[in-house]
Amino acid sequence: MVSLTQELTHLLHVQQIDQYLFQGQTSQLFGSHLFGGQILAQALIAASRTTDRPAHSLHAYFIRSGRTDQPILFKVDNLRDGSSFSTRQVHAHQDGEIIFSAMLSFAKPEQGLEFQGSAPQYPDPDSLKSEQEYKISILEDIPESRRSIVMQQFNLLIHPVEFYNPFKPVKADTQYAEYFRTFEKITGEMDYIAMHQAIAAYYSDYNLLTTSLRPHGISYANGGVYSASLDHTLHFHHDFRVDEWMLYDMYATRSSQSRGLNFGEMWQNGKLVCSVSQESLMRQRNISTHR
Description:
- It comes from Acinetobacter defluvii.
- The protein is α+β, with helices and mostly antiparallel strands and 291 residues long.
- It has helices spanning 4-12, 36-48, 131-137, 144-150, 193-204, and strands spanning 15-18, 21-24, 55-62, 72-81, 85-94, 97-107, 157-160, 176-181, 225-236, 246-256, 259-268, 271-284.
- The termini are far apart.
């Protein structure tokens, strides 16, 4: 029987069709809505297959909503291979249209000046309940028509520091934190740097946009707002393993013009290993929802 971790790594491990052309499969994680984290992760894997250097940054735009009933074609452009950095551009296509575009930079590892801010202090992940346990506790709040999708086990193990019920939103501070890791160890041919980076990218889009909704006491889950990721940036600072606990500390700094600006930091063993930023769409339902 294929495990959730095996399903995830096989989903993200895109098929190479030509030197700079790749095909990615889709998953109906949220019904017909294509999860943006999946496109981020697959684009990173596709670009990484054209260089032997690890990625250090990704800057992406979600241009059109993707579909879950057909594969995604990733076209990689090799913009530059320098002595230290390699630059790639990736376009994701469906139905003959570009739905996603990203610039990625890869760099050979080197020693240099080191600095980071203070690591956040939260309870140990093993002392916290899992997201799935919390979802079971709010089962009666979830509309019957959506229960099968909401209650589906996500393919990463998540332990929220403090659970937020999206079906009964209340005004709260933007700060939100979760621990995450894969359910099983990643081994064999799937155990490579880009896969660990891709899974972090995949998860980075899971709850980040909710941070700018929290001060308003509204939620995508109860129909109060139309929300979507508009752009997404990741910076990888150090190697890490997603099959060991990582802390994702998230917050928002501003919401205006029907957009929210969200930030995240991923920590492992007291080290800041990845930084994330994202602007998200957040239109209340009584406002036109044309994107």
